[in-house]
Amino acid sequence: xxxxxxxxxxxxxxxxxxxxxxxxxxxxxxxxxxxxxxxxxxxxxxxxxxxxxxxxxxxxxxxxxxxxxxxxxxxxxxxxxxxxxxxxxxxxxxxxxxxxxxxxxxxxxxxxxxxxxxxxxxxxxxxxxxxxxxxxxxxxxxxxxxxxxxxxxxxxxxxxxxxxxxxxxxxxxxxxxxxxxxxxxxxxxxxxxxxxxxxxxxxxxxxxxxxxxxxxxxxxxxxxxx
Length: 226
Ligand SMILES: Cc1cc2nc3c(=O)[nH]c(=O)nc-3n(C[C@H](O)[C@H](O)[C@H](O)COP(=O)(O)O)c2cc1C
Hints:
Elements: H1 9-16, E1 39-42, E2 44-49, E3 55-60, E4 63-66, E5 69-75, H2 79-86, E6 89-94, H3 100-106, E7 109-110, H4 117-121, E8 125-126, H5 130-134, E9 138-139, E10 148-149, E11 154-164, E12 172-184, E13 189-190, E14 194-195, E15 204-206, E16 209-211
The structure holds flavin mononucleotide (FMN).
């Protein structure tokens, strides 16, 4: 079905009496059935503990933060969720755009052995040593067993508070974690307990392509830094 909605920003601007960057543009839409719906969220490298005490690294992009809680979306059948169910601790490492190739080196692998059939069909291979594969380096955590990734500017040690597999879907789990310690590279820290948004940029997973942030547009009324 083709639905066309046209918004005339000229009219809106006249009403508000202000300037609008979209002046003159129309916003016609078409209904689509997107093959991919990853609309641009930060990449995370999720460190979890394998049964033998080694560390698995899983690239993920489904996450959001609410206060000091971070909610993760994990596919069932991967090693990350298996590890978190057995050992409810993790490190949420947040890479910057410079690390996209290290992330992508991990992309075709799973820590699951044997590789589940659906992953095999998509070309996934088993890899135990994700540090070696990614070219990244481990550093010990303070309170959790999985190591942190030294090269990631933000490394968040977290404990799992709750894992939910929605009754309407058997393919993913929603994992609620709570941050215990936040480690930041010194060059992105602003006056002790803030991250400098002008020095830090996440790596964005945008419809399966990697991007960095563009230039700053402004700030919200609740921003606590200049
Ligand atoms: C950039 C990127 C983002 C991804 N986002 C997710 C995600 O949010 N959740 C998820 O379960 N898998 C995600 N994947 C797929 C997993 O990385 C993939 O299933 C991998 O095999 C997981 O490793 P594991 O089985 O060792 O945990 C993503 C992959 C890439 C490259």
